[in-house]
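Chapter review: from sequence to fold.
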Amino acid sequence: MTPIPLYGQAITDAIAGGDLDQLRKLQALAESHVEEHGDIGALLTQLKVEIAKLKR
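The token string follows.
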């Protein structure tokens, strides 16, 4: 299986393509990524808070 980078454009392109097998593969990769690394969106929010604190 060819690695798929998990960023917005890859997901958007897969949705637009409408290939069910590709969507399922991408879903599995994304779920695995979240299990391994956590919720990146939530971590990004925490990161922004910490940056804001340090800038003061």
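Two observations follow directly from the output. The chain has a mean pLDDT of 87. The radius of gyration is 15 Å.
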